[in-house]
Amino acid sequence: MFINNNSFPSCLALEYQHDALHNHFRSVAHLPWAMLLSSGHATHPHSRYDILVAEPLATLCTTGEHTCITQGEVQTTHQDDPLALLAQTQAALLPNLPAHPTLPFLGGALGLFGYDLGRRFEQLPEHAISDISVPDMAVGIYDWALIADHQQQTLTLVSHSDIYARWHWLLAAQESYADRAAEDMPFTLTSEWQANMSAEEYQQKFDQVQAYLHAGDCYQVNLAQRFSADYQGSEWQAFERLNASNQAPFSAFLRLPQGSILSVSPERFLAVEQQQVTTRPIKGTRPRHSDPISDRAEAAALTMSEKDRAENLMIVDLMRNDIGRVAVPGSVSVPELFIIESFPAVHHLVSTVQASLPDTCSNTDLLRACFPGGSITGAPKIRSMQIIDELEPQRRNAYCGSIGYLSCCGRMDTSITIRTLIAAQGRLHCWAGGGLVADSQWESEYQETRDKVAKILPILSATPSEPSESSAMASEAQDKPQTANESAPQDGTCTVHGDNSGDESRHDAHTEPQQPA
Question: Residue ranges of the Anthranilate synthase component I N-terminal domain (predicted)?
């Protein structure tokens, strides 16, 4: 069925299948600026939409002080605020539309807002090395999208241009992929994972954080380490493995000219609908268990944990303050506090902050006021970010930034890019971190960073013809937690023993499975 009421872009209703967008994206995944926002095939209440885009009208790439805007064959470079440039470019190319009752994205901006984009909004040192070529911001302006609504079980093609030409383009891409699919090189790792710091180096950085905490510089600092390996083959195949295993509601695959982003995030950053903003920070994690009694006990323990509740409340207050900078005075509220949400591998402790935005506040204004998300920095945010830059050897790039869309109808939805990998120049990078506070212990914190990648590293280490060992490893790890000395080589070589990961801020000795977001 074709619909065009002259106010909205053309809409073409198609036959719904739950995996339709993944099947379509497989045929365009090789194209620069092809992007997929995926609900992760999950039953989570926020796992409603999948959104596929490609062939943008324009692109914006920010690296450091410079933003390159490309439209067709024309490239211009600017030093203005990148989010202001994004808003201006979108306004020049697409109309400002009212919201649609069921379609979240009617065209607009979609892409990556890397953690280091925050350097454009706050004064930070430049100690950490920038060694990944992916830009700080990489966003396309798209005039079409293929959208699956898993609640309504609808599949809709939306386009501001010739909608039938776009549909035939998608069909032709599928036919072309069928002819070349056998030629795709399977994804495989060609080296061992290597951490960017040894246990001894981590302990030294941990001690430095403790000194800052006891001196009163901050209350919590999120310290992360990076794991890297060589690879070859299809990055999209790697994402499909991660997506099937993690079932994260804010998953995404972004194909950029400089590399690919693979995200399986469970955490929503900022969502806006009808000038109402919602954020849902995660703080607190416990592992899932196959035994129902043990599983319920873990969830109950998380609910009653004073330590996790205190940390969750700290980030709730931080997000209330960030949003309050641009919200209608007195409108900030906390309708949910310390709610348990269960994922395939973990229970999470989640809270919800909401507020009303004045008509004068754009989505880019909100993003600027809150970026990057406080759940992955620490508190106070700016001082924590300064300490992070001092202690982490390399910049975070996409990790702990955000992926999402800003629709021309005023809606926005973004994730926190935890559980997120970068594939660039034959190297695959994966991060894990945790929030350090005054009573943290370095051994458990160090082991936790390795536990958090245990849902990712074994899955990608398995070949396509052999099953991942992560499930068996998860059961073993839950029954027998390991210490840093038992499982972590001092030279930084990564040996992961189990599936014990969670949110990026956990900091007690309890091991946990993982799982942007």
Answer: 22-157
Told to judge if 390 belongs to the known catalytic residues of this protein, a careful annotator would answer: no
Q: How far apart are CA 339 and CA 334, in angstroms?
A: 12
pLDDT of residue 463: 63
Question: What is the rounded CA–CA span in Å between residue 231 and residue 229?
Answer: 6
Element housing 363 (H / E): helix 363-370
* Distance set, CA 191 to CA 27, 108, 355, 429 (Å): 28, 39, 47, 12
**Catalytic residue selected from 267, 311, 445, 512:** 267
C-alpha closest to that of 86 among 48, 135, 27: 135
Catalytic residue among 205, 235, 283, 298: 283
Query: So what's the pLDDT on residue 492?
Result: 57
- Alpha-carbon span 140 to 35, nearest angstrom: 9
pLDDT at site 307: 81
CA 20 vs. chain centroid, Å, equals: 22
Which segments of 39-192 are extended strands (E)?
49-53, 58-63, 66-71, 74-78, 108-113, 137-142, 144-149, 154-159, 188-189
Residue-level pLDDT at 62: 99
94: its two tokens: 């697409």
443 in active site? no
Residue 451 burial (10 A CB sphere; 0-12, 13-18, 19+): buried
Residue 324, phi-psi category: left (phi > 0), alpha (psi -120 to 50), beta (remainder) = alpha
How far is the CA of 469 from the CAs of 36, 108, 279, in angstroms? Answer: 27, 40, 34
pLDDT for residue 267: 94
Nearest of 48, 54, 47, 51 to residue 27 by alpha carbon: 54
Report the pLDDT value the prediction gives residue 516, as an integer from 0 to 100: 29
Contacts of 41 (CB under 8 A, 6+ apart): 18, 19, 47, 243, 244, 247
| pLDDT given for residue 460 in this prediction | 93
With a CB cutoff of 8 Å and minimum separation 6, the contacts of 356 are 275, 276, 277, 327, 328, 331
What letter does residue 129 receive in the DSSP assignment?
B
pLDDT in tens, 374-409: 999 999 999 999 999 999 999 999 999 999 999 999
Residue ranges of the chain whose pLDDT lies below 70: 1-7, 42, 462-517
- 3-state DSSP of 137-168: EEEEEECEEEEEECCCCEEEEEECCCHHHHHH
Please name each of the domains of the chain with its CATH number: 9-181 (3.60.120.10), 188-234+267-395+425-487 (3.60.120.10)
Name the amino acid, one letter, at 159.
S
Give yes or no for a contact between 387 and 377, defined as CB atoms under 8 angstroms apart. Answer: no
Q: How far apart are CA 269 and CA 271, in angstroms?
A: 7
